[in-house]
Amino acid sequence: AQSVTQLDSQVPVFEEAPVELRCNYSSSVSVYLFWYVQYPNQGLQLLLKYLSGSTLVKGINGFEAEFNKSQTSFHLRKPSVHISDTAEYFCAVSVSGGYQKVTFGIGTKLQVIP
Amino acid sequence: EPEVTQTPSHQVTQMGQEVILRCVPISNHLYFYWYRQILGQKVEFLVSFYNNEISEKSEIFDDQFSVERPDGSNFTLKIRSTKLEDSAMYFCASSAEGVRHGYTFGSGTRLTVV
After folding, report:
1. Nearest to B108 among A43, A103, A105 (CB)
2. Which residues of chain A make contact with B89, given a CB cutoff of 8 A?
3. Considering CB atoms only, which of B42, B56, B106 is closest to A101?
4. Which has the closest alpha carbon to A108: A3, A5, A6, A4?
5. What is the pLDDT of residues A50-92, one digit of tens each?
6. A103 with B45: Cβ contact below 8 A
7. What is the spatial distance between Cα B17 and Cα A91, in angstroms, rounded to a whole number?
8. pLDDT band at A97 (very low <50, low <70, confident <90, very high)
9. CB nearest B45 (choices: A98, A101, A106)
10. pLDDT, tens digit, for every residue of B37-81?
11. Cα angle at A42 between B39 and A35, to 5 degrees?
């Protein structure tokens, strides 16, 4: 079975500062990795995904993530955050292929301070 | 941009009552899912549905739960006899070609069992 660990439950950061949200996964087979964002009172929105190939993945809203197989990590980064980035961010993993379910981490609340 | 629509946004029900949560997935999507998020906990997989049948279900998805796609557009989750511990946010999601394309989530239905 796959699992995801998000190491920080809350991350406060000042506006225009860089941020990194950490995610580690566990799986014995090849995986897909995702980051989703949830704004207040909304559903989850796909930020970016890693399927294969280049380990640096760029997503929407200026976010990027790097897949590191040796460290089983998929950390999310943004060089300069904006107030509108305040949200909850979920790392997720799936076995590669088909209609496989996605297993989510517990989420990291990003609070951008003006 | 196409959306997954869930109704109602909030439902309060008495313990032991049946509830039906409704979802309208994106029209050309083929894979459908229900997830739930108990307050303060992880987003948990309940069930996936493809080609008019359940393709996978979690151990949470016991005999009290059922899903249906009655008319080719709606996708419903029924809980036959609600328990207090069923109180959660329930998210519907759909996908065009399985997990590698990511899911599109609805905004959720907050179910409160009293």
Report:
1. A43
2. none
3. B56
4. A6
5. 998 999 999 999 999 999 999 999 999 999 999 999 999 999 9
6. yes
7. 34
8. low
9. A101
10. 998 888 999 999 998 999 999 999 999 999 999 887 899 999 999
11. 85
pLDDT at A4: 94
Amino acid (one-letter) located at A72: T
Whether residue A96 is predicted with pLDDT greater than 80 in this model: the reply is: no
Of B6, B42, B48, the CB nearest to A99: B48
**A-to-B residue pairs, Cβ atoms closer than 8 angstroms:** 63
State which amino acid sits at residue B11. Q
Distance between CA B59 and CA B66 in Å, rounded? Answer: 13
Q: Which bin fits B13, alpha (ψ -120 to 50), beta or left (φ > 0)?
A: beta
Q: Is the pLDDT of residue B100 over 80?
A: no
Q: Per the structure block, which two tokens stand in for A95?
A: 């076995």
Q: In chain B, which residues have their Cβ closer than 8 Å to the Cβ of A98?
A: 98-99
Beta strands of B38-108 (E only): which ranges? 43-50, 53-57, 65-68, 75-79, 88-95, 104-105
**C-alpha closest to that of A92 among B54, B44, B36:** B44
Contacting residues of B for A42, CB less than 8 Å apart: 107
Q: What is the chain B residue with the closest CA to A5? A: B42
Radius of gyration from C-alpha coordinates of chain B: 13
Q: List CB contacts (< 8 A) between A45 and chain B.
A: 105
